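Appendix C reproduces, verbatim, an entry submitted by the partner laboratory led by Prof. M.T., so that reviewers can inspect both the input and the predicted structure.
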Amino acid sequence: MKTVAHILKSKPSQTVYTIAPDKPVLDAIKLMAEKRIGALLVMEGEKIVGIMTERDYARKVVLMGRSSVDTPVRAIMTSSVMYVRPDNSNEQCMALMTENRLRHLPVIDDGKLVGLVSIGDLVKDIISEQQFIIEQLEHYIRGERG
């Protein structure tokens, strides 16, 4: 069973993109589009105060007729942010995401942000793990028959 720490190490980029709560939503959307990501952590200094996702934008700006230029991130972010630790397993993360309908989980170690895992990161890791098991079983079967 792989841990969150292993998943973070396997990611091509360790960068966690953030934005301040007083920035306009338009700045957040531009950053997400530029970096091809679906969420930004909302930070005040070193403290996570929320998360803004594409879902937040669609539901709280577009559908409510708000302006992306005039609306601050604080007005649409999700304030209660669930997180995991580096020693949590991929299965624990999947369970947390499934139960709470989340797509992103910050990773906190000793009170400090060390990464972010997405549902895509977890699915990729699980598929890789299953592929390894399949290959091992195929080798075992071929060895027994050969």
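The domain at 4-145 is CATH 3.10.580.10 (CBS-domain). Additional entries are available on request from the coordinating office.
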